[in-house]
Amino acid sequence: MNHALSTHLWANHRLTTSLLTKIQQAGIPEVEIFCVKQHLDHRDKAQIAELGHWFRDSGLKLRSLHSPMYTDDIWGRSGPHSVITITQPVKSLRMPMVEEIKRAIEIAELIPFRYLIQHIGVGGEEFDMRKVDAAFTALEELRVFARQLDVEILLENIPNELSSAARLREFQDLTHIGLNYVFDTGHAHMGEGVEAAFHLMKDRIRSTHIHDNDGKQDAHLFPFSGAIDWKTVMPLLRGCGDQFPLLLELKEQPGAANPLDAVRQVFDRLEEQ
Fold this sequence. Notes:
The protein is of the alpha/beta class. The protein contains nine helices and eight strands.
């Protein structure tokens, strides 16, 4: 399968051309950039311009951008006001968040990418039809905006009552919005189970987030460090051919000296399953 890597692995560090060079030298052909302020600030024109110049001269491809989830640089811990969510039912509160996502999409003007990865809600959020309506309205606006920059929005299955694999299917049936998916193995493991979620999402999967956990905590562990049965999962993914790549979305491990070496080893082990 094709391989790709999310810069989530370095999300607590500023994204630099030096890091991107190391990823390219590790033989990884595509990346997804994780859009959090301390890593990639979508409003920092100087940072975007520097990265844009680098990508134009590089063989590394920016496959996707993960939509921003917070306005602060400490993972939303500064308060509820810092959370970006398209499920806010109050239009006057939701629209500034939609505008923030648009500013991130505009990165494609300088650094072309194919997909924007978008959550419906936040982790653990409860189901509410008002939130479903809000998400549909926001996504309709974002889809039109993104299309002008040749960007496609992918919805991600996350552990809440609005966007599990089953809820995403319901959302499609209810709204007929026609958006495709990014399949997250770790989130599926915390919900319906990886195999069940995969079959619910299979036809619309265009990308992946590959990571592991114990089934309870969204730890973004390296595969084979948690409880997912990769001998069962890999034949499912491989059976779809080139429909999507293996895209690792991992968390930095304290004390790990050479994370890219570990990434290459994980890709090799996954391909052996």
